[in-house]
């Protein structure tokens, strides 16, 4: 055992593996992965760990303070029994087929059995070059690593399906990045995140094999997927493959419905960033809505097209599920059956989204026409003046039952003042419609305390706003990781008011509106 991990590697024994051992950039054919060793770093230092993921893996909390932990989870030492690999996959990027992509800066160390017997894949992001690195160096900078570490755990505590993060380790080495793609690269501190999931297989893992017409390797990968991740579906065959499409569609629908509930925007929903387990995967230029705006994307690369904007996420997820289904067509050979299978996404998303919206609003359901009208009206109102989504629903949650009917107009609206970025604009464009909406909502919503309990479970008070992450990054770049720890501690209880943590609840300050890292971000890492 390494550091107390119970290693149980099965993936490389069940799928075709690249026979070449040289770590050179190339097209890898007939394989799902290439064995590759991480590149050691100069001075690894553990900046943060997730105590929950440590426990999940059966690791003692004190293990993170040992030199071995820093060495292993920076990629500087590979203990006996680990068999690292980089995965081979392709994908559609911004709607266009990109061919082979693969793990260009991620290296999976091993599979390990957790405390409950669940098998987990431990993957280092930023651990050095692989055969899939193309023109990149396989490294990651501290800023992107902090964002991935914090967001992985924040999403888990929000109840959103996600990959997890075990550790964040500084490398002690600079990484050259052109953050704005403007021809001015700079040296930044490097770091490695160890992320954790039952598997990091993605839609693109199957797409590449189908595009290459490598049906035998595709079959082997599907057999592994069914055996290890969907055993209830039975052995590989037409019906189990169709059921796999349905399951992936349903899980993806649930994931995206939760994104919409908390105001999360992934930013780069390429098919190579879509998990076959319906987990939020690859935290790059993500963001949370500050002002509620269905057209907003945090990705500067996507600013002109807006393909991955907040309101477009359900449609893109469905498009991606169709691409996954197409990849399995060689094993199914039944287009009508596949078309029916992908429609599971539509029905599942509609069901989850309606249920979660009703929960956010403290309604029993959206089945009644007047309930659906209330939901539609409020989401039409919020963008009319820049309205903070999280703060608006927090204020609505805390409005006592029956208050809307008896409270004077100004007093009723005062509770929502923190949600508006421009009070005058809100007064001119929202107040006259919000007042009757609030009174109609109060009459229809569930009675207290049932209403508040239902709403408090759906509406977070604390989310990882980009400016909060950026403040933690800047402090860490100056050598002090304490704000990473403090931010993670707050995000562990996102639905509970935390006295003394008001700074983490506040809307985005004006200084952060256009500051790099605080609003939109590039794909640079």
Layout of helices and strands:
Blueprint: E1 6-7, H1 11-14, E2 33-35, E3 45-49, H2 51-56, H3 67-72, E4 85-87, E5 90-93, E6 96-100, E7 106-113, E8 119-125, H4 142-158, E9 164-177, E10 186-197, H5 203-211, H6 215-229, H7 238-262, E11 264-265, E12 287-288, H8 313-332, H9 335-361, H10 369-381, H11 389-398, H12 403-406, H13 409-414, H14 423-429, H15 431-444, H16 450-456, H17 466-477, H18 482-491
Antiparallel strand pairs: 1-7, 2-4, 3-9, 5-6, 7-8, 8-10, 9-10, 11-12
In the predicted model, the low-confidence regions spanning at least 5 consecutive residues are none
Q: How do the strands line up in the largest sheet? A: 1-7-8-10-9-3
Average pLDDT, to the nearest integer?
96
The biggest sheet, with number of strands, parallel, antiparallel or mixed sense and barrel status, is: 6 strands, antiparallel
Helix-residue proportion: 40-55%
Output the radius of gyration: 23 Å
Structural class comes to: alpha+beta
Percent of sequence in beta strands: 5-15%
Shape: globular
In total, the number of strands is 12
Query: What's the number of domains?
Result: 3
Order of helix and strand elements from N to C terminus: EHEEHHEEEEEHEEHHHEEHHHHHHHHHHH
Distinct helical segment count: 18
N-C termini distance? 33 Å
